[in-house]
Amino acid sequence: MIKILDTTLREGEQTPGVYFDLHIKTAIAEMLDRIGVDIIEAGHPAVSVDIKNAIVQISSLGTKAKIGAHARSVKKDIDLALDCGVNFLGVFFCVADERLNHIDQNLHQAVDNISRIIAYAKEKKPGLKIRYTPEDTVRSKWENVISASAEAVRAGADIISVADTTGYMIPGTDRSFYTYIHRLRSELGKQNLFPLIAVHCHNDRGLALANALDSYRAGADIIDASVMGFGERAGIVDLASLLAVLHSDFDESSSWELDLLPDLYKCVSHYSGIPVPVHFPVTGKNAFTHCAGIHTQAALKNPIHYQSLSPGLFGRQTEITLDHMSGRATIAYALEKIGIQCPSNELIYSVLAKVKEVGRLGRTVDLDELKYIVRLLNPNQYPEFLL
Ligand SMILES: [Zn+2]
User: Fold this and answer.
1) 283 located within any domain
2) Looking at the structure, do residues 89 and 193 belong to the same domain, yes or no?
3) pLDDT in tens, 184-206
4) What pTM did the predictor assign?
């Protein structure tokens, strides 16, 4: 069973201009826990006292989900994270030669540092789940990644995270997660090391979700995601899209409470000040709305004609919108929705003409506005639709 790590509160807060107050972070963590994610990455406590306090608060909630903190490979960060009461720790350190040169270290020193820090954290809190991330894993020299990962696991790391820090990977090519994960497992297996494998896919090429699914097919154990894919630059994998595909197409966790996703997205969107794009999968306003006349006519008979995900699964429903693309069937349906049973052709076509006129202004007509239109066209016949 795949595990989901949500990092809205850590990576997500690295979205420029996004800051969540303590009470908002707590609410988001509680919603994530109810939805059923396995790990909530709550922040990097060394960044600020606010963040540290939030992690302390979230760790005390008694969630089913593990609560994680991010830490550089330094003792001070480990101490701070453990002071917060977390039961999951993500330690990161680069292993690329160019990056190591930049900080005047060689691979031997880096690996020594990583394993000492991991052993220190494990000794301090034996039940702690530790993830080691070689930063920019996929563009780092293979031998360096293997050497650091193997020593990290020997020192006590439970999880190795393959980080596509720059959104570099492309499924189906020689830069695929599918191949990378198979090679990594095989190489570590030869050394009798069998850590869980996590993946952290950035979206710079718009391929984060595709790469996450490529990793899933290769047997990754943990996938990172965030609400709306919030994160550095183009962000990471969108949580709702990931859960939707894993549940609907790969039979993953029937215990996820996916109908709570809209509330979570509403909260994160509101307090981040970033609207959910209307065309966003699963959580966007238009995700289950049919517009074009031919589509709505078919969808009204059977939504499956133009839907492959069930809106009910996500607490949503199929909707029809009225605008310049509407057709006769859409208008007849909408009229019935506002209480006009078996509307006459005359009414349908006069309403359709007006709806198209409004649509050409770049607007849609909702059911309230539809009543106003009916009232205007037939003031005596529909007195109940008083303006
Ligand atoms: Zn990241």
Assistant:
1) no
2) yes
3) 999 999 999 999 999 999 999 99
4) 0.93
Is residue 54 assigned to a domain? yes
Distance from the alpha carbon of residue 201 to the mean position of ligand 1, in angstroms: 7
Average pLDDT over residues 255-276: 97
C-alpha of residue 118 to centroid of ligand 1, in Å = 20
Q: Please state, as a whole number, how many other Cβ atoms lie within 10 Å of the Cβ of residue 300.
A: 16
Greatest pairwise CA separation for the chain in angstroms: 87
Catalytic annotation on 295? yes
Can you read off the two tokens belonging to residue 297? Answer: 């006519």
Cα 100 to ligand 1 centroid, rounded to whole Å: 19
Cα–Cα distances (Å) from 112 to 82, 98, 106, 152, 353, in that order, read 21, 18, 10, 9, 74
pLDDT tens, residue by residue, 150-179: 999 999 999 999 999 999 999 999 999 999
Indicate whether 179 and 50 sit together in one domain: yes
Q: Domain boundary at 247, 272, 297, which? A: 272
Specify the residue for token string 């005047």.
104
What distance in Å separates the CA atoms of residue 166 and residue 175, rounded to the nearest whole number? 13
Q: Could you tell me if 268 and 352 lie in one domain?
A: no
Confidence of residue 302 (pLDDT cuts 50, 70, 90): confident
What pLDDT is recorded for position 362?
Answer: 93
pLDDT at 97 over 60: yes
CA proximity to 100, closest of 86, 90, 114, 87: 114
* Count: domains in the chain: 2
Q: What average pLDDT does this structure show over 9-25?
A: 97
SS3 state of residue 375: helix
Any residues with CB less than 8 A from the CB of 214 and at least 6 apart, and which?
169, 171, 172, 176, 177, 178
CATH of the domain at 95: 3.20.20.70
Residues paired with residue 91 on neighbouring β-strands, in sequence order: 71, 132
Q: Position 299: which residue type?
A: A
Q: What residue type is 27 in one-letter code?
A: A
Distance 349 CA to ligand 1 centre (A): 53
Which residue of the set 182, 202, 295, 305 is catalytic?
A: 295
Bridge partners of residue 161, in order along the sequence: 198
Amino acid at 309: L
Phi, psi (degrees; rounded to nearest 5) at 129: -85, 125
Burial of 76 (0-12, 13-18, 19+ CB in 10 A): exposed
